[in-house]
Write a structure and sequence with these properties.
- The longest helix has 26 residues, at 35-60.
- The termini are far apart.
- Helix 5 packs antiparallel against helix 8.
- Helix content is 67%, strand content 0%.
- It is rod-shaped and about 95 Å long.
- It has two domains: 2-65; 71-162, no CATH class.
- The chain has helices at 2-26, 35-60, 68-71, 81-92, 100-113, 123-132, 138-151, 154-162.
- The model has no long low-confidence stretch (mean pLDDT 78).
- Keywords: Signal.
- Residues 1-26 form the signal peptide.
């Protein structure tokens, strides 16, 4: 609505300028400017101005800044476990596993914090457990923390465990 008003105003100003230029043509002038000299900078300016207006409208739109609760997965049923497991295996190899207890712990904390202040991971606790984890499974310990915090679904952690992706200490 505001953009269309703006375009209407620009159109009216252009018509006034063209009308004034037509009157000026009647009088002969000693300086003749090529059309390209005036036209191209005007086109470039118009494109840049319209891009600026689009970006400004996007940044001022309140729907641009959506809270984490609205971006998160609305239901545990929306997660396709077969696809999730395939992606984990494709990215991390056939030996990928998840520490169920760690995943559940972070999923519960993240689930409780949705809608309120953001849950902050206790990094001291995470790294102290990370150091005590077997060397070959350190990557999977951090994966368990990430999946629990990001997906925030205890059901997801349990389903990965049922599918045989539990890390053995």
């Amino acid at each position: 609505m505001i953009l269309s008003r703006w375009y209407l105003r620009v159109f009216i100003v252009c018509l006034i300028v063209l009308y004034a230029a037509r009157d000026a043509e009647a009088q002969t002038s000693s300086i003749q400017l090529p059309v390209e000299l005036v036209g191209f900078p005007v086109i470039v300016l118009a494109v840049r101005l319209s891009n600026f207006v689009k970006k400004l409208a996007y940044s001022l739109n309140p729907n641009t800044y959506v809270s984490r609760a609205r971006r998160s997965i609305a239901s545990d049923d929306m997660i396709d476990m077969v696809e999730a497991e395939k992606r984990l295996v494709a990215e991390l190899g056939e030996s990928v596993c998840v520490y169920t207890r760690v995943c559940l712990h972070h999923a519960e904390k993240a689930r409780k914090s949705i809608g309120r202040t953001r849950y902050n991971v206790d990094w001291d606790e995470v790294f102290s457990h990370y150091k005590t984890t077997a060397d070959k499974n350190k990557e999977f310990y951090l994966l368990s923390v990430f999946l629990g915090d990001f997906i925030a679904s205890p059901k997801f952690c349990n389903q990965l465990a049922k599918r045989g992706r539990v890390c053995k200490d």
